[in-house]
Amino acid sequence: MDRGRRARDFFLGQLMPLATGLVAGLLVYVYLPLAARGQPAVNWGDPQTWDRFVWVVTGQIYRPYVLGLPLAEMPGRMGAWAGLLGNQLGWWGLGLALFGAWGCWQTGRRWTLAVLSWALPAAAFAFLYATDDAHVMLLPLMVPMTIAWGMGVSQVFKIGSVEGLVRWLAPAIILLLPLLSLGMHWQAADLSGDREAEAYEARALEGVAPGALIMTQGDRATFWLWYGVYAERRRSDVAVVNAPLLSYRWYRDELRHRYPDLAIPEAAAGPTGLARATIEANIDRRPVYAADPPPEWREWFTLVADGESGLSTLR
Question: Which pTM value belongs to this model?
Answer without folding.
Answer: 0.78
